[in-house]
Amino acid sequence: MQILKHHSDRVWQVAWHPSGNILASCGSDKVICIWKNINGKFELSEILDETHEKTIRCLSFSPDGKYLAAGSFDATISIWLIDDKFKLVQQLEGHENEVKSVSWSYDSKYLASCSRDKTVWIWDHSDEIEFQCNCVLQVHQQDVKCVKWSRNKSYKLWSCGYDDVIHEYDLIGEEWENDEDKKITSHNSIVWCIDQYQDILISVSSDLTIQIHQFNGENYLLTQTLQGYHDQPIYSCSFNFDGTLFAVASGDNKISIFYKSDQLDESGFVKYQFLSSKEFDEDINCVQFKPDSNVLAICGDDYQVRVIDLQL
């Protein structure tokens, strides 16, 4: 395990560049740290600061590797163009309150953001530096905590939040549509995070459960509920590169790892089983698998970023 230290306050999120050689972290100190893999160790390469006036809550690299988006409690999103150095090219304004999550579509054409203002925004860009609002989606009744695009080369988007609901959006023609019949309402408290691999969607919540939803050709059905592994809200979840593992992080200072069982359930759906857990000194706010291996990056309230090789 490698411990990366520079932040001077709580670290909210980590994000991997698609190459796996760059890791970004952000936090309450209003700083983005860029860590690069040099001879097998991650070292601090750049510090991106003096851009946001408040906490930087979220980060996401575009799948084409060209951009980094960062969302802040100052209600703006910074867009960084990646060359030899990170260059700030645009500050997106529009949200009325704290930005909680940002996510890129599979082809890097669209950026989604969500906020305490109960909205999901979709941004597009016609060239390298001109991003503009494409659509504002207002279906949540409370604070929206997370947005996540499908990895399946489609313009499918999910969002979740304080209203305990997961909503699904699709691009139909030129319009973004939300089908109320497809919303997921199986959690009974805040849904903090979602992730997706192929036909499987996972979600984590303040109800202390991890839910597995699988696509039946029409909708995502709840097929498994994992519980009893954490006694505080579960804040983050991440699939590994091939869907055989996922990790979750919790306010009880622990991360847990689950693996894909060789056996299907009675309805023919995939099942996941508990593998291991690890405890730390403070809340863990985010866990993210490296794009090409079973290496985890985690961060939390102890101001530190950790890179852990599961060596499975």
What's the arrangement of secondary structure elements?
Layout: E1 2-5, E2 11-16, E3 22-27, E4 32-38, E5 41-48, E6 56-61, E7 67-72, E8 77-82, E9 86-92, E10 99-104, E11 110-115, E12 120-125, E13 131-137, E14 144-149, E15 156-161, E16 166-172, E17 175-178, E18 191-197, E19 200-205, E20 209-215, E21 220-227, E22 234-239, E23 245-250, E24 254-264, E25 270-279, E26 284-289, E27 295-300, E28 304-309
Antiparallel strand pairs: 1-28, 2-3, 3-4, 4-5, 6-7, 7-8, 8-9, 10-11, 11-12, 12-13, 14-15, 15-16, 16-17, 18-19, 19-20, 20-21, 22-23, 23-24, 24-25, 26-27, 27-28
Range of helix content: under 10%
Low-confidence segments? none
**Strand line-up of the largest beta sheet:** 1-28-27-26
Q: What class, by secondary structure content?
A: mainly beta
How would you characterize the largest beta sheet? 4 strands, antiparallel
Query: Please, what is the average pLDDT?
Result: 96
Please write the string of helix (H) and strand (E) elements.
EEEEEEEEEEEEEEEEEEEEEEEEEEEE
The count of strands amounts to: 28
What's the multimeric state?
Answer: single chain
DSSP helical segment count: 0
Indicate the proportion of strand residues.
Answer: over 45%
Distance between the termini: 14 Å
Structural Rg: 18 Å
Q: What is the 3D shape?
A: globular
